[in-house]
Write a structure and sequence with these properties.
The structure is a homotetramer of 137-residue chains. Chain A has 137 residues and is of the alpha+beta class. The first copy, chain A, has a single domain (5-136), classed as Hotdog Thioesterase (Thiol Ester Dehydrase, Chain A, Roll). Chain A contains 3 helices and 7 strands.
């Protein structure tokens, strides 16, 4: 079982488009913040520290799939329920349910990796660090 | 067969994050611009005009699925190849292949609707307007 | 004397640029949220309500002047101290001091108007509504 | 006399707010892109190269002052006329006039520095590099 951590975001006027609803790329801004917030709340050290101890420099996105169920507008307070329902050998699934109270606004499943640096400066997927997984379960 | 329209975007410094790569929500900003650009290039009138003639106020997003293959950074010139490979009764699939020359950077399949206003102020999916479909094929 | 209202913003990874500091346009996103938050906290009704009662549809920006004193980065918690130090016949000055604890990060003085609609669909500056001014002092 | 370089930006739907006009922080996104574009067009090498040759890592913003004259909306094509009207010992003024054809939309004067790294990891203002100034005049 994964922990579930809630990240709260108030929708601002400037997050909305001429149709008066959240312009959808802003949901991905909040999801990225909720992803990082999840690890912080689980006690995972900052990436500049894990880079030294585990070689992990971050969790880049490989794949994302989102469904939009209801619109949201400014003044709305959204709760992003964040969890990691699945761990694979070199990737993990991070899930977000964006709620406004009892209303489901949007759902998103991401596949991310724990990235380390390659010698040529690029990045590569590391095996899931058991220390990090243990903190998130 | 769908037309394919190319939207060009230069990556700016501020589009990149501390890892020096495009912060992924920015891809969705560009995809939304490419979606609108596709209809403009196909000759579809602006939504404020289609609202009067067809009741269509825009093409809100229902579902999006993206894969990230390679990173991009500032100075890169990206080509977003945009098409509509599938028409369903009340939805359509809009596809984006984000290229940097021959490198595939990202792919995205969206499901969108043609939205009209409901009497209570909400929106609803309209049947695909044949006039618009004809312009895009 | 003006009320002073504090708006709190945590800097996210994606708010920072490849120099690892806040990309400056993001400060203006937060300032706009702090401007609206100030009026909400002072008890000013939402603009869709003041539109009916006072003809006020919002507070567009006429002029802004900002100084950047120190950089901020992700994880920083910023306090935006917001006030209205000056009321003129048809404009007002809204002031922001962006602090990280005792560190002054940025300061900004804006000139805004209370806007009403013109008959041709444009906007015009209204005389400062005394009801709104009274709530903010 | 300074060179004047024009950076062109089409306003997108998502750049606009519920009032159907450009949300003002987006002007600063475009201005930052125009700033960088100015140096590129003048032949100044990328910062990762000037870092090795001149110690210059970029041009952070110290002060900005903008006036908003007319609104803009999606579909508008904006021209950002960019120049450096003033060189001081350790700072320079970069000026932007945002035009839509003959309409002046916004004006902005910035003070920026050429930044180098301090030994403690911070940044400091370098004397204006004469090689760079010569390219921009």
């Amino acid at each position: 079982m994964s922990k579930e951590i809630i990240y709260t975001q108030t929708v601002q006027f400037g997050d909305c488009d001429p149709a008066r609803i959240v312009w959808f790329p802003n949901f991905f801004r909040w999801i990225d913040a909720a992803s990082r917030h999840f690890f912080v709340e689980c006690g995972v050290p900052p990436w500049h520290e894990t880079e030294r101890t585990l070689g992990v420099i971050g969790t880049p996105l490989v794949d994302t799939h989102a469904k939009f169920m209801k619109t949201a507008s400014y003044g709305d307070v959204l709760q992003l329920h964040t969890s990691i329902p699945e761990w694979r050998p070199k990737t993990f699934v991070q899930r977000y349910r964006v709620m406004r109270g009892d209303d489901a606004i949007m759902e998103c499943d991401e596949v991310r990796i724990f990235a380390g640096r390659k010698e040529d400066g690029g990045i590569r997927a590391l095996p899931i660090p058991p220390e990090i997984r243990a903190l998130c379960e």
